[in-house]
Amino acid sequence: MKGAVLIVPCCEKGKGGGHLTRCIKLTKELRGMGREAYLFIPAGNNTDSFLKSLQFDKSLVLSEDSALEKKWELIILDRFQTPHNDLVSWKKLSSVIGIDEGGLSRDSFDFLIDILVPEKIGKPRANITSPLLLDLPKKRKSAEDTKNKEIRKILISFGQEDAAGLAFRAVNKLAKKYFNGMEVTLLKGGLNNSTSQLPDFVKVLDFIPNLADHLYEYDLVITHYGITAYEALYAGTKVLLDHPTSYHKKLAKAAGFTDIKKINSTINSAANRPTQARKTLWEENSCSSWLKNNNITSLAALVNSFSAQANRHCPVCGKDTDNRRIARFPERTYRRCPVCGIIYMDRTCPPPIEYEREYFFEAYKKQYGKTYLEDFSNLTAMAKRRLAIIKSLLAKNKSDKMSLLDIGCAYGPFLAAAKEEGFSPVGIDPAQDAVRYVQETLGIPAVQGFFPNCQLPSPNSQPYDIITLWYVIEHFHNCAAVLAEIKKLLKPGGILAFSTPSFSGISGRKSLRKFLEESPGDHFTIWSPKTCKKALHLAGFKVKKIVISGCHPERFPVFGKFAKSKKSPLYWIFLTVGKIFRLGDTFEVYAE
After folding, report:
1. Model pTM greater than 0.70?
2. Where are the domains of the chain?
3. From 3.40.50.2000, 3.30.365.10, 3.30.720.210, 3.30.70.360, which CATH number describes the 143-280 domain?
4. DSSP-derived pairing of the beta strands 111-114 and 128-129
5. Angle between helices 413-420 and 376-393 (to 10 degrees)
6. For the chain, what is the mean pLDDT?
7. How far is the C-alpha of 430 from the C-alpha of 467, rounded, in Å?
C-alpha cells in the first residue's frame, strides 16, 4: 500500500489564493482515490473562512507539530518560490516534489512538475512539463462561437486576493476608452476597494462558484498568468493578461499570452491577436506523450502514481551529499556525486522491470536479435576471455579449485566457462527459471534470491577467491552495501570483477542527456572508468585492470551514419579512434 502524502501550499498573505485552491483540490482528489493525504497550513495563517467556502474538512489540516509526528512517503510543495531552509527541512522528512517552483532552490528538489511554468522559463528542466495536468473546464464554446471575433461580454478576475489591485486598475484604465456598450463583470477578490467610482455598466461580484465552468460564457477574460488564463483558453474564450509581478510577466511572455498593453486601437484587435499560448495546450511533447501512454489525465492521478524514494547519500560511496541534478525525465532524476563522480538515479516509482523469463528471452532478443540461450556460446566465449584476465591477476595466489561466486548469473554462461576452466563456481540470480537451468542443465550450484539479502551457496569454505557481476552492479539501489558485503566475502587478495555501461563513452560524450534518457529504468548507477577507480578505492578495493568494450563506430556524431557497415572505411577509422581514446560505451573492471 502506498504511503501518506503531505501537501504544502503557498498561503501567505499577498500571494493570492491559487496555490491554496489547487492544493485543497489535490488533497480531496487523492483521498477520493484512496490515498492518505493531508494539507499543511502553518499556525497563524487565517484560512478558516477560505477552507469553509471550499467545503474542506479541517480535520485534514496539519500544522508543524502534527506534521512532524507522521511518516510521509511524499511531500508536495506548491509554494511558488520555496526558501532554501524550508526545502532542507522538508527533505529530512521525505522525498519532495515541487509544483511550478520558481525559487532559487528549484534545482534542489527531488522531482519537479511544471504545469504553468513553460520550458523556456523552467530552468533546470522539470521531470514533467505539461498544462494538460490542469483540471480544465468541462464546458466549452461551440466551434461556431469560437469564430465570433466581436467582444461583447468581459470578465475581469485576478484571483481570490488580488493584492496588487489589478482588477480595479484594469477597469479604471480601460472602461472609458474601450468598454462602451459591453457587459463587464469584475471579481474583486479579497480587496474592499470602493466601487462608487466604477461605471454603472460594470457588475461587481465577490466570486463566481465553479468559475472554470462559466468561462465559456464570456468573450474575453482579463486576468494574470495562472490557472484561470489557461482555463479560459481551453473554454474557447479570448484572454488578455496584466501582471502582479515581473515574474508573472516573464511567464506570460514565455507561454505566448497577449499582454493587456497591446491594446492600441480597440479591445477587439488586441484580444483577437494570434496567441501562441493557445497552441501549448494541445502541443505534443515527450511529457504529454508519457502522460497519455500511462493514462494520467490529472495532477492527482500523477501524484497518486508516485511511491518515490530519493537518495540522501551517494548509493556507491555513501557520502552525505545534496547534489544538483544533471538531468530529469518523467519518472527519473539523475544526480552526480561530487566525491566519487558516479551518476545515480532517483525514481518516482519502482522500475517496471522484472527479472524473469521474459527479461532473458523477449526483451533480450529485442535488443540483441537472439534470445539469451541462443546467444549462450558467444557469452561463454566472452566469459573465457574474462577468466583469462582473472587467472593472470591471481597467478601469485593461485590454488586448486578456486571458489567463484557469480552474482546475477542468469542462465549460467560464465559459470559454465568457469567450471570448464577448473574453478569451483556457484551462482545467484533472482530469476527462478534461470536458477533451475543452472542447477539441472549445467549441474552447477545456484540459489534464487537478491544479493546481498539471501543465503549464499558454498561448495567450499568461504570466503571466495573471485566474485563477479556482469552487467549487474548498476541494478543495485544501494551499491555501497553491496560492495561492503562483497569485500567481506572475498579472501585477502581476492578479485572483484564486473562490467557495466560507461557514461564517458561515445554515446555519453555525444549527448549525456540522451544517453541517460535511453538508459534502462532499472540502472540505478551509471559508471565510467575514471569514476570507478575512485569509487572502488573508497570502498576498499584497488583497481588492477580496466578493459574498454562496446565501441560503436555508428554512434559517432555527424559521420557515424556512414560507419554502420564493416565494409565502410569509416567503420574501421572510428573503431580505431574509439579504442585509442577509450570511447567504448561499456567497460570491465578487475579489482583486488
Report:
1. yes
2. 5-135+300-309, 143-280, 357-591
3. 3.40.50.2000
4. parallel
5. 50
6. 90
7. 17
